[in-house]
Design goal:
binds adenosine-5'-[phenylalaninyl-phosphate]; 7-stranded mixed sheet; 3-stranded antiparallel sheet
Length: 356
């Protein structure tokens, strides 16, 4: 019987099996020696190629095995096929692992760099910086005050009497300040989260002699229900100017200049008579809406500092006069950026915040 593999008409079973064994050995060597993807692909085509791969040829050689030996030869062929394919898969995953670990340490200077996402300042923080800048150019310096206040600075020194509705505990965030045996107890002098930045007017006047020209920006707190123009925590910008001969005309000029610098030349400012216990006369400050002609939004309150307030901090109201104003920062920022709902500032939606 001829022993030439798969080329003769009838092949002895032993020869066939031996040659299948050789095929497995050679395939294993060829796959193991492939060090690149190209070499492995060439070996795959040689052994597993669908048309003329050596496994395919061996399969065809089955037809040359004697009929009685066919079951044994077929079984061996299937095992050979599994072994060759397994050797290929093993070599393939070995190469992939090597490539991955080579990548780990490699630095390719020709690759484009990865883009770093830069953080931004919150729009309200940006607004505060802009407002400081504008008012700084008008000669106002920045004053700070605490967010936790006593009733003197939040109410009494501002001429807000004990019976005034603004002092209602339900209109304010009072603190239970001390702990006694783990239980909160009332403080002798109640403290609260300040409800307006007007507190800083008092603190500044207590410590400084006229002339005074300051602004103060910061958080204030009121138990208001959130809606498009209200939030329980918001920011105010407070302005105070005290000197000889300061008049209502100065107040209106400063607020108009301020509004035009921050919101643009086309903004209209309107003053409506109003009442605040710490200013006399008092006005509400409205500005035209950005999106509806002839409609107004209230931005804050203002007025001439009440002589009672000047006296309570030791100023002589016969010698000095002053104006004060307090505006809502969220509303200013919203007006400038054409936002219709100030709640957007506090949703922490990165898609919204990234636009500023
Ligand atoms: C005051 O707070 C006075 N202290 C303003 C003032 C200062 C008057 C100095 C005179 C002299 P009012 O309560 O109106 O006033 O608030 C001022 C502005 O704060 C409002 O016009 C509005 O723009 C803003 N504001 C008030 N409540 C909220 C709130 N819950 N959410 C967002 N903004 C608010």
């Amino acid at each position: 019987m001829s022993s030439s593999f798969f080329g003769t008409l009838v092949v002895a079973l032993n020869d066939y099996l031996t040659q299948l064994d050789d095929l497995v050995q050679q395939a294993r060597c060829a796959f193991a020696e492939a060090h690149t993807a190209e070499q492995l692909e060439a070996a795959r085509i040689e052994y597993l190629g669908a048309k003329n791969g050596r496994l395919k040829v061996a399969q065809k050689g089955l037809g040359s095995v004697d009929k009685a030996d066919k079951p044994a030869a077929g079984k061996q062929f299937n095992e050979t096929k599994v072994a060759v394919e397994a050797a290929f898969e093993e070599a393939k995953s070995g190469l992939a692992g090597e490539a991955a670990s080579a990548d780990d340490g490699a630095f390719d200077p020709t690759e484009p760099g990865s883009r770093l996402v830069r953080g931004r300042l919150h729009p309200i923080t940006q607004t505060i910086a802009d407002l400081k800048d504008i008012m700084g150019r008008l000669g106002f310096s920045v004053a700070e005050g605490p967010e936790i206040e006593d009733e003197w600075h939040n109410f009494e020194a501002l001429n807000i009497s004990e019976s005034h509705p603004a002092r209602d505990p339900l209109e304010n965030f009072y603190l239970a300040t001390a702990e006694a045996n783990g239980a909160a107890v009332e403080h002798e002098s109640p403290l609260l989260l300040r409800s307006q930045t007007s507190t800083v007017q008092i603190r500044v006047m207590e410590q400084t002699q006229p002339p005074v020209r300051i602004i103060s920006l910061g958080r204030v707190y009121r138990p208001d229900t959130a809606d498009p123009t209200h939030y329980p925590m918001f920011h105010q910008v407070e302005g105070l100017m005290v000197d000889r001969d300061v008049s209502m005309a100065d107040l209106k000029s400063v607020l108009r200049l301020f509004a035009r610098s921050y919101l643009g030349e086309d903004v209209h400012v309107r003053f409506r008579p109003s009442f605040f216990p710490f200013t006399e006369p008092s006005v509400e400050v409205d500005m035209s809406r950005h999106d509806a002609d002839g409609e107004w939004i209230e931005f804050g309150g203002a007025g001439m500092v009440d002589p009672h307030v000047l006296r309570s901090v030791g100023y002589d109201p016969e010698e000095f006069t002053g104006f004060a104003f307090g505006l809502g920062v969220e509303r200013l920022c919203a007006r400038r950026h054409r936002i219709n709902d100030i709640r957007e500032f506090y949703k922490n939606d990165i898609r919204f915040l990234h636009q500023f």
